[in-house]
Amino acid sequence: MPIKVFFREDIEFLERCAALSGKNTEVLMYNAGKAVADFILETLLENKKDKKLICILLGKGNNGGDGYVAANILQGSGMKVSLIKLYGDPSATAAKNAMDNLAEGLTPISFDEEKAKCEELILKADVIVDAVFGFGFKGECDLKLHRVSELSKISSAVKVSVDIPSGCECDSARVSKGAFKADYTLTFTALKPALTEEPAASYSGEVHIASVGIDKNLVDSCPPAFTLIDDSLVKSFIPKRKRDSNKGDFGRLLMICGTYSMAGACIMAAKAALRSGVGLLDIAISSDIYPIVAAAVPEAIFTVMNFDTEESSVISSEKLFNSLNKASAVLIGCGLGQDAKKYLETVLRFSKCPIVLDADALNFTSENTDILALASYPLVLTPHPGEMGRLIGKTASAVQEDRYNIAKKFAMEHKVILCLKGSGTIVAMPDGEMHLNPTGNPGMAKGGSGDVLAGICASLLASGLKPEEAAIASVYVHGKAGDICAKELSQIAMLPTDIINKLPAVYKMLEN
After folding, report:
1. Residues near 89 by Cβ (< 8 Å), separated by ≥ 6?
2. Tally of CA atoms within 13 A in the half-sphere of 151 that contains its CB
3. Which end of the chain is more exposed for a tag (fewer CB within 10 A), N or C?
4. Residues of CATH 3.40.50.10260 domain(s) within the chain?
């Protein structure tokens, strides 16, 4: 079952529901603090008889309250605990009560008043617990958090963050300079975006989920911000082939891709499509690059077009319409260049099957996104951040800062399935449903990787998967093949063509 990921407001809603059932903030805080203490005692400390030095960094809110509760339990278990208040006494009522109930011998010290002593405690600690901000952080880290984060980095201690590393924003996964970098994060109830999306995910270390007493049925019934795609979900989409199958059972994909200067994009998309199970691949291509592509992809058939004369243009248009009518899915855009303008409107108007738009088809669409409304069949768009930026009139960096909201809004507004590529590719549905892909690595950040993804997606679509299934499965398969490449070849040396060569291993895993 895919893992749910919740926004901050979702968790706050669940906590309010828990309060109505009798589990108020104090109860949830105790359970959270106990979970932190138990995690340290049971997971991190090999020899529990040793008196380990545990330094807990405390904020003023409920995250700090979790730290006060954990301190009591850790000291009661024989650990030596020091408490450092970064911002004074708690302002939250439950956290204040937790501080007032500290066991004898536990006396918090102020970072402002005893800075040198606090710094010494951080450097000498065996375990440093970050209980400063949690999911409430927004904005920029101040000099105090920056300082303790830097000291924690040079300390040999194991670093544990409570819920979310301080300095990381829950929903956007943005990281402020000076954020705490954890070896482990113990989060509560469910995952949050900052724990699954970069750059915050790199600050979270190994993530563990602990229950704080919110009813599981309530959590299961709450719609998530998005779900993490996993192999069980993708396996459920890939049908088993019957013994009496023939190529007609697995669809006909029409690819309108490639120009003289970018034949490679067409070839990579085609090879990825063939490795992803389509029954018949028809490549509509200009006559000048037909010999190049035909030699590279002997399994395909070709709709060869020539627009040099009026007569040849008429014949080519008729051939394209004929191929379009036979297709069970269409891929347009990979390496198509300015030729995208020739074909896109025709494809959108007259296609009788789902369409994948990539690369130059997206760039042409950005000139007038209303053109998407011409399609009467489902559309799957696969933009990278730069292409997404052009579609909405923003920079790539602006897209990266608000990936979830941008992807969701565009998919809902234009009634398309949107695969926003990048670290943690987001698949956004027209109804607002969102999925996050956990596979893939930086070695895939090379020209051509996107063409491979487009080919996989279009092939699965042509083979009979529903558009949402094809989008989800393709990003997962693509990333998984990339991970195999990185492991065997290194992230530096791997190529998009290597990803194609590893697709059989991924499909074999899914078949089994």
Report:
1. 60, 96, 99
2. 23
3. C
4. 3-228
Secondary structure of residue 309 in the 3-state scheme? coil
For position 474, what pLDDT does the model report?
98
Contact 191, 163 (CB under 8 A): no
Q: Say how far residue 57 (Cα) sits from the centre of its chain.
A: 30
Is the distance from CB of 17 to CB of 218 less than 8 angstroms? yes
Tell which residue, 307, 267, 268, has the closest CA to residue 287: 307
- The CATH code of domain 248-422+447-467 reads 3.40.1190.20
pTM over 0.90: no
Coil, helix or strand at residue 159:
strand
Phi, psi of 239, rounded to the nearest 5 degrees: -75, 150
Per-residue pLDDT, averaged over 264-284, amounts to 97
CA nearest neighbour of 359 among 277, 419, 305: 419
Instruction: Provide CB contacts within 8 A for 254, sequence distance 6+.
Output: 282, 283, 284, 303, 323, 324, 326, 327, 329, 330, 331
In the predicted model, what is the mean pLDDT of residues 469-492? 98
Nearest to 151 by CA among 123, 125, 126, 131: 123
CATH top-level class for 3-228? alpha beta
CA pair distance 197, 117, nearest whole angstrom? 36
Which structure tokens are listed for 42?
């049971």
Listed in sequence order, the residues at least 6 apart from 241 whose beta carbon sits closer than 8 Å to its beta carbon are 249
Each residue's pLDDT tens digit, 418-458: 999 999 999 999 999 999 999 999 999 999 999 999 999 99
Burial (CB count <10 Å: 0-12, 13-18, 19+), residue 393 = exposed
- CATH 3.40.1190.20, the chain: domain bounds: 248-422+447-467
Q: Over 80: is that where the pLDDT of 50 sits?
A: no
Distance CA 55, CA 209 (A): 22
Q: How far is CA 13 from the centre of its chain?
A: 23
Rounded CA-CA distance 100/483 in Å is 50
Compute CA distances 69 → 37, 38, 72, 99, 161, whole Å: 8, 11, 5, 8, 15
Tell me the two tokens of residue 53.
């030095």
How far is the C-alpha of 427 from the C-alpha of 409, rounded, in Å?
12
Burial of 261 (0-12, 13-18, 19+ CB in 10 A): exposed
Residue 399 to residue 397: CA distance in whole angstroms: 5
Helix (H) or strand (E) holding 32, with range, is helix 25-39
Residues 419 and 397: their CA atoms lie apart, in Å, by 17
Least confident range from 48-52, 110-114, 231-235, 416-420: namely 48-52
